[in-house]
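Chain A, query sequence.
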Amino acid sequence: MTLPPLHIPALLRQYGIKPKKSLGQNFLMDDTAMQRIIKAAQIPPECDVLEIGPGLGSLTRYLATAARRVIAVELDERLFPVLQDVIAGYSNVTLVHGDILTLNINEILPCSGYWVVANIPYYITSAVIRRLLESQSRPQCLVLTVQQEVAQRICATSGEYNLLALSVQVYGKPYPVAQIPPGAFYPQPKVSSTAIRVDLYPQPLIPPRYLETFFTLAKAGFSQKRKILRNALAMSLQTSPDWISSLLKSVGIDPQRRAETLSLEEWERLTRAYQLQSAPKTISRSIAH
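Chain A, predicted structure.
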């Protein structure tokens, strides 16, 4: 379906709004790109969609034609007058003002199985996913538009893992679905973007009771990129290198390896062993970004 295009620069001038770099505001305005995102999302008609960062509502309109209901969460209250006008003809769209990292998701979407569509800054990608998946009502699918480089990091394979890839892939399988050039946005960013789809597992690959320890160990392992795993963990966790070395060997991991070479299965074995043993120093709560 093709909808009448929105003239984003004219809308911004009309409402006296200047995009905020601090919020990563580059508004999607290319209809071909939006249609590709909708096609890749494969939203069931009976499904609810949570849109994070609707901006000026360009994609919101397409979502409204595909889903039963759209809950659009926008942090920037300056955009609400525009959003209200743009979606005036869509009775199945609800606007919510707030920060997705602090909102009670269970209140706005009490049932699991919804889709999430978002154009989000890379630095909150991991935090957003954890926020969504640690709520009582969990999504079934994520469609995220991120910088191309970030998409490549998220979709990295074993042997080339990074902290962001682990943070996503512990919850689901990511893959790219659409390349989006800079000219599809206003203002035009300096880099290309990629829409990725993450099909979520019924349960994380790491059991929930181990997730906090997993994220902390992973963050520690990747904190010193040029160091071997034994030294990176010992330094970040402020504990004995010999103890760490013994722990790694106990689960079949060579202490001389680097964090990016470990598979998710190896991270799980390490996480279980750490949590079951008495470490010289207690891990403090930490969220991977």
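The beta strands are 27-28, 48-52, 69-74, 93-97, 115-119, 141-147, 172-180, 185-186, 193-200. The chain has a mean pLDDT of 92.
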